Amino acid sequence: MLSRREALKTLALSTGAIALSSTASTAQQALGEVHKLPPLGYDYDALEPFIDAETMKLHHDKHHAAYVAKLNQALEKEPTLASRTIEELLKNLDSAPESVRTDIRNQGGGHYNHTLFWQLLRKKENAGPQGDIAKAITATFGSLTALEEQIQAAGLKQFGSGWAWLVLRAGKLVVESSANQDCPLSSGAYPLLCVDVWEHAYYLKYQNKRADYIKAVLQILNWDVIADRYRQGKA
After folding, report:
1. Domains in the chain, CATH or no CATH each
2. Closest CA to 213 of 59, 70, 20, 96
């Protein structure tokens, strides 16, 4: 039978081991969850009939979540990057360690691009830009309709998977497209607006009618968010 002293010593050792194990587990969990899946900010069906609830659920909960999980998994190879934001990782892509550069580009780009995309959508049809962003659009493209036509063209011309963008590049508004999950941050631009043209973004509702999907997205853009990003980008 253990003496009281031995029993207390055993209890102390056991408690210390449990605490140490718990601390190690917490540290591993923290490292593995440097980047987290953001909430949509609205219900899955909030964008009906423009984007269906099932697409939103799969797109956010499965596709976006997978990018976040794979990014965190990749960054476990380079703990020194754990404190960097997703913006910092993508802006400094060329200087990232080779062991994680491709994962930051693909998984990190997927995380950032989708996070922005969710913020840009709201069911307030045909609510156009106001203020400085409206003036800049008119000065650069001639009209909102002309801008929308360029975004539509960029999305349709993108072969395979990718994105259509409105960005600030060298202080000027530019419409462009990117392949896969490439992000304009990595090439020195500041994204204002994006449209996901991967098939998983629209195929359940629109099948192969990408043009109809892009037209629908353009009707539910949150121009308040875009205007705020324009002010931040110009600053």
Report:
1. 131-234 (3.55.40.20)
2. 59
